[in-house]
Amino acid sequence: MASIQRIKSSITGRISFRVQVRRTGFPSQSLTFPVQVEAKRWAKHVEARIRRERYAILTPFANVVERYRKEVLADLTESARRGRELHLAWWTRRFRNRGFAAIDQVEIAKGRDALALEKPLSGNRFNGGRRPKTYPSRHVRSPATVNRYLASLSHLFTVAMHEWNLVERHPVREVKRHSEPLGRARFLTDSERRQLLAHCKKSRWPQLYFLVLLAISTGARRSELIKLKWSDITLSGRRSEIHVSESKNGDARFLPLIGHSLAIVRAMKRRRPPATSYLFPAPNGSDRPYRGFDKHWYEALDAAGILDFRFHDLRHTCASYLAGDGASLLEIADVLGHRSLRMTLRYTHLGTGHKRTRLTRMVQGRGL
């Protein structure tokens, strides 16, 4: 595959060594060295790289993803692993039998555009296949979601390039990401909150009221609340709190238990079944979290007449109430567990009343 030619200059009389490496399916490469040892070393390096690339081209994309699942995803938290597995499952359906190293930025860009246009089903069917009118049966992926799919694919190529030596280039880095807006900040008005909580109390799932109340009063994410165990709860006077050990960004944090939520937790603990370790266990009696409460949630929304509202908007509601009560961006970010203030900036306009009061006091005090 590699040939080394000894060359003598007709002008200077110096000896050099020209290496040519040829392999079917790969471009021919050549380079000239003053020393034969360097020429042989370079030839071995190029041949080894071609062998790796040939192996990667022949190795199906699905095989590389399976190795990534076993060696990389196994070390992640459950929530992080679930998200990446969802993303990589989509890319596997698209590239399953393609050679891993043969996938280029053009194909990935086409996949990015297909993701943005695809309208996946969301949620589970219930009530005999009938969805309440507020339940979003179909939606288009947001720019942020498309970027998360690209990020998972990018990390797969990063590992394959730097740790497994399967490829020499990173095609995902050459694909442009979508620009992401700050996102919506839909929150409950006071009247909507009262209506929703009233109908949550009437739900066929008795714990829906407590779950919604806890989401509003702590700003915790749905996944964080559903996975709460009694071992995460501390009830000791002024230090009553929830320990969120596994959050979306991997940071643990403590959330104070205050007001009605604290009273409900104390009452629940007194009548808690001995075999139950979760705050919100499955209704069938098994000791696992109840993830499929959507039907009860959307029934309560319908009964309250609240439109265009998602469970995650309860988190926005908590932040919006904090901003309206004069909390700073740092305080809101601390409650929500944001690593960056950029996500918290969407609530700044809600504190304008307090800013106006402070500025008025300052202007009047100085005669401005």
What gross morphology would you assign?
elongated
N to C succession of SSEs: EEEHHHHHHHHEEEHHHHH
User: What is the mean predicted local confidence, pLDDT?
Assistant: 81
The structural class is mainly alpha
The largest beta-sheet arranges its strands as 1-2-3
N-to-C terminal Cα separation, in Å?
A: 84 Å
Number of strands: 6
**CATH superfamily grouping of the largest domain:** Intergrase catalytic core
Q: What do you see in this structure?
A:
- The chain has 368 residues and is mostly helical.
- The chain folds into 3 domains: 2-58, no CATH class; 61-174, Orthogonal Bundle (DNA polymerase, domain 1), CATH 1.10.150; 190-363, Intergrase catalytic core (hpI Integrase, Chain A), CATH 1.10.443.
- It is built from 13 helices and 6 strands.
- Strand 5 (241-244) and strand 6 (253-256) form a beta hairpin.
- Helix 2 (61-71) packs antiparallel against helix 3 (78-95) and helix 6 runs antiparallel to helix 7.
- The protein is elongated and about 95 Å long.
- The termini are far apart.
- The relative contact order is 0.08.
Kindly list the characteristics that best describe this protein:
single chain, 368 residues, mainly alpha, DNA polymerase, domain 1, hpI Integrase, Chain A, 3 domains, 3-stranded antiparallel β-sheet, 13 helices, 46% helix, elongated
